[in-house]
Amino acid sequence: MIYFDNSATTAIHPEVLRTYTDVATKIMGNPSSLHNLGSTATRLLEASRRQIAELLHVRSEEIFFTSGGTEGDNWVLKGVAFEKEKFGKHIIISAVEHPAVKNTAAWLATQGFEVEVAPVDEKGFVKVPELESLIREDTILVSVMAVNNEVGAIQPIKEIAKLLEDEPTISFHIDAVQAIGKIAVEDFMLERVDFATFSAHKFHGPRGVGFLYVKSGKRLIPLLHGGGQENKKRSTTENLAGIAATAKALRLTLENFEQKTEKVRQMKSVIFEELSKQEKIVLFSENEHFAPNILTFGIRGVRGEVVVHAFEKHEIYISTTSACSSKKNAAAGTLMAMHVKPDLATSAVRISLDHTNNMLEVEAFLTIFRNIYQEMLKVAG
Ligand SMILES: Cc1ncc(COP(=O)(O)O)c(C=O)c1O
């Protein structure tokens, strides 16, 4: 099997799994309990939080555990909206956000908030001057992802942060789900960022666990009310095994970060080179300014799912741009926002690599690709 769908989810790292099972079986206390089993659980919970905070160069109190990227995005959008509605009801998101942001914003629009969408250029990068022109007196939140999940465009977070330096009342949220472990932490965890969303299963951690960075002093109405866990911001008994495993996964991911990303970059550029020689191939990702792991392309005249299934027959797993859109048979939202023509957009498939892949897999992929491409040319005419 060759697994090139690492932006959809990654395999849990064996050491991470070991941490998970160790904690789940040996640390039985609830962190809220008064007895010493509770204190042991609390110590592990706080050690995990501290480790994540250190790796991100932020403070422990700024990390809140969640159930993943979707919850983190929902929490920021709804939490900021209802926290700040007395000051304004205007929210700006980019045109290429994940449904966790896009659909939450759409729901907020049904609750009396006004959502405006900052467009992207033909490569998928947010147009900063256009975003700037949307800013108003009553804007309370700007939400832009750091790395796009469908084509891998690295968004101009630094420029947006700079722009927002003059707008201290606007909260700035980044969805960093596809950024962590792919681009340097310093490139997106900027001083001006108020909230950042993370999800463990994208970096070899367990599914259903994530964390949110909330800058000190920034207020967020809770989504979950109850027993007051997570500093009264997110009630429910903590998923301690998942949290400890997430901290381990993050440490392992950021270990030898440069070597790993270089390896991934080289694999991507070998595939890129080969694909760019083919007449009927359209490339939606590039090497510069794009995540090193994501390469999205299409074979003109051939629907993406046909290509995905053709590879699947050889036990090679890729996807139609995002796990969310693939089953709906819909063209990728990002490509539509880039004004790619619908028939071309529906041809798109995404390869998403990982440092656990290797050049032998790349070569095997390319051998199969050449055969599939020749077959598809006959279909496409
Ligand atoms: C950019 C982005 N944001 C949010 C999510 C949702 O994360 P989760 O699956 O942890 O809910 C994803 C997952 O695909 C994503 O790619």
Structure characterization notes:
- This protein has 381 residues and is an alpha/beta fold.
- Helices cover 42% and strands 14% of the residues.
- The protein has helices at residues 14-26, 36-56, 69-84, 99-110, 128-134, 157-164, 229-232, 240-254, 257-276, 304-312, 323-326, 333-337, 342-345, 359-380; strands at 2-3, 63-66, 90-94, 114-118, 139-145, 171-175, 195-199, 210-214, 281-283, 294-299, 316-317, 348-352.
- The strands form three sheets. The protein has a seven-stranded mixed sheet, with helices on both faces. It has a three-stranded antiparallel sheet with strand order 9-10-12. A two-stranded parallel ribbon has the order 1-11.
- The protein starts with a strand and ends with a helix.
- Pyridoxal-5'-phosphate is lined by residues 68-70, 73, 98, 100, 145, 149, 175, 177-178, 199, 210, 323.
Largest β sheet strand count, sense and barrel closure? 7 strands, mixed
What's the N-to-C terminus distance? 30 Å
Bound molecules: pyridoxal-5'-phosphate
Q: Structural class, please?
A: alpha/beta
Gross morphology: globular
- Counted by DSSP, the helix tally is 14
Portion of residues within helices: 40-55%
For the secondary structure, the number of strands is 12
Instruction: Write down the Rg.
Output: 21 Å
Strand content: 5-15%
**Helix-strand string:** EHHEHEHEHEHEEEHHHEEHEHHHEH
Mean pLDDT over all positions:
96
- The strand line-up of the biggest sheet is 2-8-7-6-5-3-4
Oligomeric category: single chain
The low-confidence parts are none
